[in-house]
Amino acid sequence: MVKDKQKTKISLKKDELFNCSRCGNCLAVCPIYKQELDESVTPRGKLSLLEAVDKGVMDFTNRLSDKIYTCTMCNSCTVECPSGVALKEIFEAARLDLVDSHRYPEILDMLKKRIAEGHNVTFDTNEGRADWVKQIPGAKLEDMIKDSAEVVYFAGCVSSFSPRTFSIPRSIVQLLDQADIDFTLLGDQEWCCGFPLLSSGMEEEAKKLADYNVAKIKEKKAKMLITSCPSCYHTWKHTYARLSTEAVDFEILHISQYLLKILKEGKLSLNPLHMTVTYHDPCDLGRNSDVYEEPREVIQSVPGIQYVELEKNRAQANCCGGGGNLESLDADLAASIALAKAAEIADANVDAVISACQQCERTIGTALKKKKKELKKKIKVWDISELVLKSVQGK
Ligand code: SF4
Ligand code: SF4
C-alpha cells in the first residue's frame, strides 16, 4: 500500500513524529485552526495523519495532501510545542514525499512551469523584472546595472512584478543612492530564488535556481547580497549553502539589517516623523530566520516615532496568511487569516503598521481596506524601507 517507508522523507523524522504528546498546545496558535476549527488541519491533526502513513495504515492520497498543504508554514506550532517537535520540518519532509508520490495540488505544476520558463512566479517574461525603476523620476536602469559592485540588491519576484509593492524596491534604491552605496541590480538576470518551489516540496527544481543565482552574484564580484523579501532572505541565508554546488562566500543581509548597519555608520540622516507605529514580524524573517530586533531598532531610530508592540509579537506574532502558497490554494482561507491580523492591528490604535515583507504589506493592506468602515482611523501599511525613505526625505 504505502511506498517503501525507508524511502520516505517523513520516515527520517520518525523520532520527531512520535515525540508528540497530543497536548494540543499548538492548536491555539495555528492560524488555520483558528479559522477552520477542524482538527484534521491542525498541527496535531497533520502529525496524526503522517504517523498513520509512517505506520503503513494510510497512504499518501489527494485528500491527505490537501490537509498537509493547508498550512501557511508560519512555524507558530513549533515555537509553542512543549515537546520540541519540529513541526515545520516534518511538514516540509511530508511535502517532499507528496511530490515524490505525485500527490500535490495541481496548481503547483503551473507554478513550476512558470518558474522553469519565465524564471519568475508570474505570467510575465523576466525582461520586465526591473520595470519599477521607470517610476523613479530621473532614474535610469542602465545606471543601476553594473558589471561589478560591492552590494547586489536582489529584489525578489513579488516586489519586481506586483505594482502594489513597487514602492519597496523603489525606496531601497533611492536609499542606497542617498547613502552613496556601490550597488547593482541583476535586472532580467535575476531569477526566482526558488522559495515557492522549496515550500511546495519541489527541491530538485530549486537547486538549479540556486546554482544560477549564486553564479550571478559571483560574476558581480559582490561582497554582499541584500534583499527586501524575507523568503528570499531565508532561502539565500539558510538553504543555499545546502542547495548550491558553488560556495556561498558573500554576506547575506535582509534590508532591515542593512539599513541598521548604514544608519549606524552615519550614511543616512533621519528627519522626524510624528506618528504612532507598530511592527508586524513576517514569519520568514522572525520565527523562521530569528531576525527580530534589527527592524525594531531601525523603526525606533526615526525621531518623533511613538512605537507600540502588537499584543502578539516576535516569536508569538500572528501570521498574515500570506505564506506556504496558501493564497493560491485557498484564497478565502488566506484572506480570513489576514482579516484576523488586521483586527489585531486595529486594536493597537496606530497611524501605521510597518512590516519588512512585500507579501505581508499586500495581505495586510488588502485586509485593512476591507475593514475600512469599522476602523476609527485610516491605518497606513508601509515597508520598513518606505518608512526610512520618508524620514530621510522629511515627509
Ligand atoms: S506551520 Fe502555522 S499554519 Fe502550519 S500547522 Fe503550524 S501553526 Fe498551523
Ligand atoms: S504542541 Fe507539540 S506535543 Fe502538543 S499536540 Fe502539538 S505537536 Fe503535539
Explain briefly what this protein structure is.
The chain is 45% helix and 8% strand.
**Heteromolecules bound:** iron/sulfur cluster
Overall domain count = 3
Percentage of residues in strands: 5-15%
- The CATH architecture classification of the largest domain is 3-Layer(aba) Sandwich
**Structure annotation, total helices:** 20
Sheet with the most strands? 4 strands, parallel
| Rg | 21 Å
The main sheet orders its strands as 2-1-3-4
Order of helices and strands: HHHHHHHHEHHEHHEHHEHEHEHHEHEH
Summarize model confidence as the mean pLDDT: 96
Task: Detail the poorly predicted runs.
Answer: none
**Terminal Cα span:** 65 Å
> Roughly how much helix do the residues carry, as a percent range?
40-55%
* Backbone structural class: alpha/beta
Any idea of the CATH topology of the largest domain? Rossmann fold
Q: Choose one word for the global shape.
A: globular
The count of DSSP E runs of length 2 or more, i.e. the number of strands, is 8
Would you state the CATH class of the largest domain? Alpha Beta
Give a verbal description of the structure.
The chain has 395 residues and is an alpha/beta fold. It is globular. Helix 19 links the parallel strand 7 (352-355) and strand 8. The termini are far apart. It has helices spanning 14-17, 31-36, 43-54, 62-69, 76-80, 87-100, 107-118, 141-144, 157-161, 167-178, 195-198, 203-219, 230-238, 240-243, 255-264, 293-300, 326-329, 331-347, 358-370, 384-393, and strands spanning 151-154, 183-185, 224-227, 251-254, 275-279, 305-307, 352-355, 380-383. A four-stranded parallel sheet has the order 2-1-3-4. A four-stranded parallel sheet has the order 6-5-7-8, sandwiched between helices. It has 20 helices and eight strands. The protein has three domains: 5-100, Alpha-helical ferredoxin (Fumarate Reductase Iron-sulfur Protein, Chain B, domain 2, Orthogonal Bundle), CATH 1.10.1060; 107-262, 3-Layer(aba) Sandwich (Rossmann fold), CATH 3.40.50; 267-393, Rossmann fold (3-Layer(aba) Sandwich). The longest helix is centred in the middle third of the chain and has 17 residues, at 203-219. Bound molecules: iron/sulfur cluster (2 copies). The site of one iron/sulfur cluster (SF4) has 15 residues, from helix 3. The site of one iron/sulfur cluster has 14 residues, from helix 2, helix 5 and helix 6.
